[in-house]
Design a protein that fits this description.
Blueprint (H helix, E strand, L loop, with lengths): L1 H16 L28 H5 L14 H17 L27 H13 L10 H17 L13 H6 L3 H13 L7 H20 L13 H15 L9 H13 L1 E2 L4 E2 L8 H29 L10 H6 L4 H21 L13 H16 L5 H14 L16 H12 L5 H4 L2
InterPro entries: SQ_cyclase_C, Terpenoid_cyclase/PrenylTrfase
Pfam family, one: SQHop_cyclase_C
Protein name: Squalene cyclase C-terminal domain-containing protein
């Protein structure tokens, strides 16, 4: 039944958007439409290059140290200038997506968290760097929003934002949690650290409360699978803090949901919660399985080193059980490993197409997830991915230093923050691999 439903979903997607999905190892088209690509020259597009519509080979030349540094510097300056007087940043409302003035929109937690994480990844913090005050103001904005909405359903009363509409109603808590997780280890013991940990716990509680029985975050938007992926990543990181209470069953359910969105054997994605877009589902599956796949690999390699199993043994359920992993956990590890490896290939495969042919904030978020997943898994392919995607991102930067989406999440603030996070991803290698 699941297979039949998946075929219906993907078939509908193909008819509506003109997507052609090809198996990596065969030339047979799974879905064929009469849609023809325009003859006119297409603009460079990160989404189309990663998903196969455009080649990334020629764009490697756009990624070198000097060009990357220049792009980051311009984006950084634009982002700082875009901060609102209340310390936050805003994406704007879904009903007014054409607004490109960052000061004409209200600040919201999701966008503020993304901008703050970008600045942190670039080496700034509330303790050091020339943007200390800006980041202190941003942290104060986020803590205030979380604290005053402790007893409400959401951490902010600002509703109808582009981010909420496209990713989900709980995306503010998910992204704020990620930023606070990043801040708290850098703080000395004291009032501020306690305040940040209290805010982390509030976000964790709200996210856990929002999970449905399937492990999906409720209140999903157009591409809600991304919201669920970011929420789970936030919970996993929070669970490493001994002062934060996290329900491990929620994490397991969320991991299973993300793994369930991708069939490693047939190389098909369940795109129901991803707006019918392969990229959203695949990148979320990669991100959702990365941490567990790394756990599995670590355990298995340690068993090889200690002589528990032959050094040439492959990671699978039977061999995991042979080294003492409980049957249920061994099965989970095997699925995570298979999903990660297969979905990773799809996320960078040139035979998977999209139907938009241009960039929205969701695409940038998906690329960020793919890159961070490669880091989490300590995957050697990350450099190849980074050079390809970074080259294309540099090519499509606006003259004023910003980036903006062409559909759905158009916000220049949100897209600029996300692109900066991608371009500087190697700065967080140690953090992502902890």
């Amino acid at each position: 039944m699941k297979t039949e439903n998946l075929a219906i979903v993907l078939s509908a997607t193909a008819l509506v958007t003109g997507i052609i999905l090809k198996d990596k190892f065969t030339t047979e088209n799974r879905f064929i439409t009469t849609h023809e690509k325009p003859v006119s020259e297409e603009k460079p597009c990160v989404f189309m290059s990663v998903m196969g519509e455009q080649s990334v080979t020629d764009y490697a030349k756009y990624k070198n140290d000097s060009k990357t540094a220049s792009a980051i510097d311009q984006g950084e300056k634009w982002l700082i200038d875009a901060q609102n007087s209340d310390g936050g940043w805003g994406a704007g409302s879904h009903s007014n997506q054409g607004e490109m003035n960052p000061h004409a929109v209200s600040s919201d937690p999701a966008t503020t968290a993304m901008a703050s994480m970008a600045l942190y990844r670039m080496g700034y913090s509330i303790e050091k760097g020339k943007y200390r005050q800006q980041l202190k103001n941003a942290l104060d904005f986020l803590l205030s929003e979380v604290e005053k909405n402790k007893n409400n359903d959401y951490i902010t009363q600002v509703r109808g934002t582009q981010i909420q509409t496209k990713l989900g109603q709980n995306i503010d808590a998910a992204l704020t949690l990620q930023f606070l997780n990043q801040v708290v280890p850098t703080l000395p013991n004291g009032t501020l650290k306690k305040r940040v940990e209290n805010a982390i716990q509030i976000c964790v509680d709200k996210i856990e409360k929002s999970y449905d029985a399937s492990g999906r975050v409720s209140g999903a938007g157009w591409a809600g699978v991304l919201q669920s992926s970011f929420a789970n990543a936030g919970l996993e990181q929070a669970s490493k803090n001994k002062n934060i209470k996290v329900d491990k069953d929620k994490i397991d359910a969320a991991r299973n949901y993300q793994k369930g969105n991708y069939d490693a054997d047939s190389k098909t994605a369940k795109t129901d919660d991803g707006a019918g877009i392969m990229l959203y589902a695949v990148s979320s599956s990669v991100r959702g399985s990365a941490a567990e796949a790394k756990e599995a690999e670590t355990v298995f390699e340690e068993a090889k080193a200690s002589g528990k199993i032959d050094k040439k043994a492959v990671l699978n359920r039977d061999n995991l059980e042979k080294i003492g992993i409980p049957k249920e956990k061994a099965a989970s590890y095997e699925v995570a490993d298979k999903v990660y490896k297969a979905a990773k290939v799809q996320a960078m495969d040139n035979n998977v197409m999209n139907g938009f042919g241009n960039n929205g904030g969701e695409e940038f978020m998906s690329f960020l997830q793919t890159g961070e997943s490669l880091m989490v898994k300590k995957d050697s392919d990350w450099k190849h991915w980074y050079d390809n995607v970074s080259g294309k991102i540099i090519k499509i930067q606006n003259e004023n230093g910003s980036w903006n989406g062409h559909h759905c999440i158009t916000s220049p603030v949100f897209c600029t923050a996300t692109c900066l996070l991608i371009l500087t991803i190697e700065n967080d290698i140690k953090t992502l691999q902890q």
